[in-house]
Amino acid sequence: MVILGYVLALLVGLSLGLLGGGGSILTVPILNYVMGMDAQEAIAASLVVVALTSLVGLISHWRHKRVSFKVGLPFGLASMAGAFVGGWSAQFLPGYVLMLIFAVIMLSTSVTMIGGKKQQAKRKAPVPRLWVSALLGFVVGAVTGLVGAGGGFLIVPALVLFGGLPIHLAIGTSLFAIVMKNIAALGGHILAVTINWPVTLTFTAIAILGSLFGARLVSRISPESLQKGFGWFVFVMGLAVIGTEISTLMSS
What we know:
transmembrane helix; 11 helices; cell membrane; transmembrane; Probable membrane transporter protein; 252 residues; TSUP/Inactive_protease-like; mainly alpha
């Protein structure tokens, strides 16, 4: 099962490199159900994995001029504050509640991904006002900090719909914001959770390889097609998480 988890780490990195998100959506269930970590540890470890993997992917996107710091910086700074609050709050909720919240986020973000092509076809939106960017960033950061997920799959649609960014630029900018808020969220979690660093860093190293490959492919493959297919995958995975947690609760 551990070997399977490391193989799936490539999928985590590929998702981040290609879509600018999806890392935690996949990492938390893999670490929880496949690698055997409890929910709180899996969420905290996923923040490490996704932050470091996103950082490497960000460098590649930045070199190809696919990052908007003008939009990403205020969004990212506000998301850091929200992520710390969410990360600190997670210790007061039982593991099964966190995983059910996580599953609901998986389902909602998968719907956003599946409908992404229609949204992206809309006319380019104006650059949002500072307070709008800050509010969006804080809300997304708080959700991510609480359950360790929902980052890129919330950020990318927000940057496209409200930030006026084309999809390829939104993907790179999403990685910039993810790095910022995941560091802040980890600060909230690490006060109450012990992380298995050898497993986490090995998982991260494999995910980084996947992200480098994904970043190279992003300009060659239609992001709309990738988002739609990956959205269905996340939708099924969300249903599986709900089914697993409900089954566990009924049998206990």
